[in-house]
Amino acid sequence: MDMASAEWIAFVMTGLGTLFLLGEIMVNTRGIFAILGIGFITVFFTVALDTSSFILMLIIYFAGIVLIIIDGKLLNDGTLGTLGAAGMLTSVAIAAPTFGSGLFAVAGVLVGGISSILFLKVFKRREMWTKITLRDRLTKEAGYNTMTEEYSALLDHTGITLNDLRPVGTVKIAGKDYSAVSNGQWIPADTQIKVVQVDGTGLKVEPIQQHQNTSDD
To answer: Which residues of 100-126 are buried (b: 16+ CB within 10 A; e: fewer)?
Structure first.
């Protein structure tokens, strides 16, 4: 039974391949997920394509994953991540032998990518994602008394963004620079902001105009 006669196989192969490859990026499984993911996605491209096209599409697919890693590790603005995801989807869609299997392949990448987030609930999170989302809490119990008190004093203080918060960036408050995170929104540079929440040494800020509108409501 080839992929053209059983189009749903494309969904299984690309879904499991993407699930394990992105899972390997998010959690620490000592390479086990990477091996499984490479195996599934290689089988998909091997069955669907001839040798020359197989190599090209495989490169595009894995280049997409590399872009996602670079975006998560260095930039964290979503641009390269979006391009990477587009590359992955394009490679499996082009590789599929029929239109139907192409749709199944694209759906597999989407479902596998979204489902990989569930691994975070079971396995140990990789440190690079912990740093990006500012999930490490530097509390008094952990010995960060001085820094915590300094940051706590910044609650309700106003300042200005020094660069775009997407959602993480740098703000200036009372003449000092601090790392801050927005409430999930993109705040442009040179925007007046107010500190609305302090968590250890993590600052959450909002644009002053939005904060005032919320208070008026």
So the answer is: ebbebbbbbbbbbbeebeebeeeeeeb
Report the C-alpha gap between 116 and 97 in whole angstroms.
Answer: 26
Closest CA to 199 of 138, 158, 153: 138
How many Cα atoms sit within 13 Å of 168 on the Cβ side?
A: 17
Cα-based angle 146, 152, 158 (whole degrees, multiple of 5) = 125
Please answer whether residues 78 and 71 qualify as being in contact, where contact means their C-beta atoms are separated by less than 8 angstroms: yes
Q: Is the dihedral of CA 144, 146, 151, 155 positive or negative?
A: positive
**Tokens coding 163:** 């660069």
Radius of gyration, CA atoms only, the chain: 22
Q: Containing H/E element for 183?
A: none
SS3 (DSSP) at 26: helix
Distance CA 54, CA 209 (A): 53
Judged by average pLDDT, the poorest of 7-16, 39-48, 74-83, 196-205 is: 74-83
Both structure tokens of 154: 């910044």
Give the model confidence (pLDDT) of 1-53 as tens digits: 455 457 788 899 999 999 998 888 888 888 889 899 889 998 888 877 655 67
104-155 pLDDT, tens per residue? 999 999 999 899 888 888 887 776 554 444 444 444 444 445 556 778 888 8
Which alpha helices (DSSP H) does the chain contain, by range? Answer: 8-26, 32-48, 51-70, 79-95, 99-115, 127-132, 145-152, 208-216
